[in-house]
């Protein structure tokens, strides 16, 4: 990663995409194709160390299904309401004594605001649930889109850190938000499918 990168990139001037309804549902065993597309796509994984080997992805899906079953994580599939297709994922999980959120969106759905609306919807769920406490996010310093989601989602910038992911170190921006301090989810038209 570029050591000279602005720690909180603003990115290019944003144009507001047409609002698309976002639906969320829990990950299911039939989501393997989406998992493969997300985790093996060079563009999606560019900020996460590159594509994962295809043979590792089915085991990741099985682990994720187990964490959802045991309640230690929320792994929500982002459904684009205008297509009823899975557009990506947003995940909230306990990590090292704190809560962390992360998201991925397939290339054909990027730039439409889906990830930002899905993150806000999960934060609203976390506020209602009350068990997650402060939630941290660690987008790469060079990932302007994810840093913009943190900025617009009410996160506070903590600083730049080295973060380990998939056996690699990344230069990341550390953001944190307390869902209980966020106002209610009145600003987005998102709906959440029952768990």
Order of helices and strands: EHHEEEHEHEEE
Q: How many strands?
A: 8
- What proportion of the residues is helical, as a percent range? 10-25%
Distance between the termini: 38 Å
Our Rg estimate from Cα atoms comes to 16 Å
Mean pLDDT: 84
Beta-strand content bin: 25-35%
Please give the count of helices: 4
Going across the biggest sheet, name each strand in turn: 6-7-5-4-3-2-1-8
What characterizes the major β-sheet?
A: 8 strands, mixed
Main structural class: alpha+beta
Q: Which regions have little confidence, pLDDT < 50, spanning 5+ residues?
A: 1-17, 184-195
Which outline best applies? globular
Give a verbal description of the structure:
This protein is of the alpha+beta class and 195 residues long. It contains four helices and eight strands, in the order E-H-H-E-E-E-H-E-H-E-E-E. Strands 6-7-5-4-3-2-1-8 form an eight-stranded mixed beta sheet, with helices on both faces. It is globular. The model is unreliable at 1-17 and 184-195 (pLDDT under 50).
